[in-house]
Specification:
There is one protein chain. The protein is an alpha/beta fold and 403 residues long. 31% of the residues lie in helices and 16% in strands. A nine-stranded mixed beta sheet has the order 3-2-4-7-1-8-11-10-9, with helices on both faces. Strands 5-6 form a two-stranded antiparallel ribbon. The chain is globular and about 55 Å long. It starts with 20 loop residues before the first strand and ends with a strand.
């Protein structure tokens, strides 16, 4: 993707009205166990595939968003790809980064500040540890407000575990209900050839696993993988030239909450309670209108509490909601239909993968063994992607829909 030495060729958009914004291209790089390529190479592979998926010429790209790689992200990655964008975003808020970036990009396109924005991510988190190029992180660091927690062993995982314990204490949520999230997510992964783990799980297997941070055993926690993906957003003007039917961004919302646990007012409420409300209001829809949801799932509790905060069930009712197969591909609300971060892939900031899967499901491209359909056999009309960052520190939610 080299050769864009003088910037994009598309004419600047007129800002006389707000344009509709569509996802016009999505793709994964090689994912799972990827020992050879660098993170830059995974970025490039995903970007090329997403552009090919869109059917558009790369010269229409005048916006670029990237985070997590390079000293001057996204400048280094854009240079590697041969792009010279006139609109950029490097917002980094953990796992919610990509939903927040997509919201920013959609607003910029709608306002005429960009025509087509490429979001791309790639990571060799697993391969780097295997090759001893890096070690696992226990925390995000010991600077600023975090210095008051880190000396006491307050690890990233322990923060999620504390929140889960509070929900269990306050609402009677059980270990078995949390385990159901992992079991049903694995069942969704079973039909996904790109998923890293596909063998069936039982609740007993989840509960009897190695303890990581009480109450989380190993299978309550996301996997570590390599991989990348890319999403191309474009103004409605370009949709007639795209290779596939557009998936429209109907509404978005973002929110941040806290850095230190002592500043978190309620461990049972995530910032998705705000981002979700905003996204639905701006889309003019309600949770009842959603056919499937892709939710950040670094831990089982994250899925459960986010479902509550997005309004799919009442506060404290998440435990009961995730029972009886409701999250399965054929369930009441299919969730993480690719197997999520618990089974499919989790190379770091997974939020962009949520958008790729949501778009593929809305297009009807998931394949005969794992395509979601409505009760009357139609393709899904509306999907939701909600990313969470840090330890419930940030949230970005998008509502997507077909024509």
């Amino acid at each position: 993707m080299s050769g864009l030495l003088h910037g994009p060729t598309a004419e600047p958009a007129a800002a006389t009205r707000r344009r509709r914004v569509a996802v016009v291209g999505v793709a994964l790089s090689d994912c799972g166990r990827v020992d050879g390529p660098t993170p830059y190479a995974l970025h490039a592979q995903a970007a090329r595939r997403a552009l090919a998926d869109s059917g558009l010429d790369r010269r229409v790209i005048d916006g670029f968003a990237s985070a997590g790689l390079g000293t001057l992200a996204p400048i280094e990655v854009a240079e590697y790809l041969g792009l010279r964008p006139t609109w950029v975003d490097s917002t980094s808020v953990g796992g919610a980064t990509w939903e927040v970036m997509a919201a920013h990009a959609a607003d910029a396109i709608a306002a005429g500040h960009a025509n087509a924005v490429l979001l791309v991510y790639g990571s060799t988190a697993r391969a780097d540890i295997k090759a001893r190029r890096r070690t696992s992180n226990l925390s995000f660091g010991a600077r600023g407000p975090l210095q008051f927690e880190v000396p006491y062993g307050h690890t990233l995982i322990s923060k999620y575990a504390m929140a889960a314990r509070r929900h269990m204490h306050q609402y009677g949520t059980t270990l078995e209900q949390l385990a159901e999230v992992a079991v049903q997510t694995r069942a969704n992964a079973a039909a996904n050839p790109d998923a890293m783990f596909r063998d069936p799980l039982t609740v007993d297997e989840v509960l009897s696993g190695e303890m990581i941070a009480d109450p989380f055993t190993k299978l309550h926690c996301c996997i570590r993988s390599d991989g990348g993906c890319a999403v191309l957003l474009a103004a409605e003007d370009y949709v007639p030239d795209t290779a596939k039917a557009p998936v429209w961004i109907l509404g978005s919302g973002t929110a941040v909450s806290h850095t230190t646990m002592s500043e978190w007012e309620d461990f049972t409420v995530s910032p998705a309670a705000v981002s979700g409300r905003l996204a639905f209001e701006r889309a003019g829809l309600t949770p009842a209108d959603v056919d499937l949801a892709e939710i950040y799932d670094a831990f089982t509790y994250m899925t459960l509490v986010t479902l509550e905060d997005l309004g799919f069930c009442g506060k404290g009712e998440g435990g009961a909601f995730v029972e009886k197969g409701r999250l399965l591909r054929g369930g009441e609300l299919p969730v993480n239909t690719d197997g999520g971060g618990l089974s499919a892939c989790h190379p770091g900031m997974r939020g962009l993968f949520l958008l790729v899967e949501a778009v593929r499901q809305l297009r009807g491209e998931a394949g005969p063994d794992r395509q979601v359909t409505t009760p009357d056999g139609r393709l899904p009309q509306t999907a939701l992607a909600s990313g969470t960052g840090g330890w419930f520190c940030s949230s970005g939610t998008l509502v997507l829909g077909r024509d």
